[in-house]
Every structure is written in C-alpha cells, then in structure tokens.
C-alpha cells in the first residue's frame, strides 16, 4: 500500500464538478480569504476600512462595487473608544447594529484565532473581520524571516477558509519606493506571497488629496 498518495482529479472530472463559486465581501474587489491593505502611516487606510466596514454591514455599494451584506468586526487596535466614535460620526449618520468594534485582542500566539471563531459562532452571518494593524497581532518575538511571515498569514488563511469569511489586514509600506507596488509592502515577500488579495493605497506626496489604490489577487482582476 502506498502511503501519502496524492489525491488527484482528472481535468474532465474537475470541469464537470459543481463547485461553490468564490464568495466576495465586495464584488470583484474583496474575496473570501486573507486580504491586506498597505499604505504609508496616516494615508487614510483606517478611514477607508471604517467606511467599508459600515457599508458592508449595511449592504451598500463601495464605489460601484456591490457588497455582500453581513456582520462585520473591526479590531481598531491602535485606537481608543472616543476616536472610533468620532470617526463613526464622520463617516455615517447611522451605524448599523451588525457592525462590531473592539480596541483590544489577543495576538496570534495568545489566542486570536479562538476569539474570532467565538465571534463568528455568535454571529454566523459574519462576512468580514478587519485587523488594524497586522503588526499588533503578530509574534512578539519579532521573527522577521520569510518563513515566519508566511506562516502567520497561512494561519489566518486557514481560519478565513474554515469560517468562510474575509480577514482584512491593515499594514504599512516600506519607506523606500519600488516600481512594483507589491514590493512596497513592509516585510519579506512571504507576506505578499501568502495573502490572497493585495490592496496598496499610495500617493506621491503627503499633501496630495488624491491617492491611488492598486488591487491584485488570486480571485480579482488586476
């Protein structure tokens, strides 16, 4: 008997299978799995994520993209309640009851996965969990190797796939520029290689009012 035999499917059978299509929080832009939005400090990432959190909870469009209405959870780990409240007043006239917020959580090594599982168990229609910022839930030992970067994302991917949700990580860009937006993401290529969807929010200067959002991923058009 052959041990560890590969489980394979031939092409004809695979094409005839009725598989569940990819689920999206934001149609064509934010699929199920692990996504990461990266940008320079104070470029507006958190404001945009808060707006998305509210719109998805309400089932409202994000720009011209349709959303899948459902419960959302935003871990605002750099903020206090008064700042979250103040920003809510700025982005919406009415915050929905299915949009939830937290200003503290465990790290990946301390039990974050269990916390998210428990939340989704209590709110089975959850579609989006946003973690702002990724750095605050990472390994406290500060292992910056490719292997560690990849493994941390893989843990979150396994969780997102098991719960059938989108986990959206807020992260930073490197100080030095690069012609390839993916190379601007802080950390090793283990991060950009492991995430399902990369969103890079960038602007040429701090005083510029407009920014460019570059989007690429396994299940979205570049």
Question: What do these coordinates show?
Answer:
Helices cover 30% and strands 22% of the residues. The mean pLDDT is 90. The radius of gyration is 18 Å and the shape is globular. The protein has a single domain, classed as 3-Layer(aba) Sandwich (Rossmann fold). It contains six helices and nine strands, in the order H-E-E-E-H-E-H-E-H-E-H-E-H-E-E. Strand 4, helix 3 and strand 5 (99-102) form a beta-alpha-beta unit. The strands form two sheets. It has a seven-stranded mixed β-sheet, sandwiched between helices. The chain has helices spanning 11-16, 45-58, 81-91, 112-122, 146-163, 189-194; strands spanning 24-26, 30-31, 33-39, 71-76, 99-102, 126-132, 166-172, 197-202, 212-217. The protein is α/β, with parallel strands linked by helices and 222 residues long.
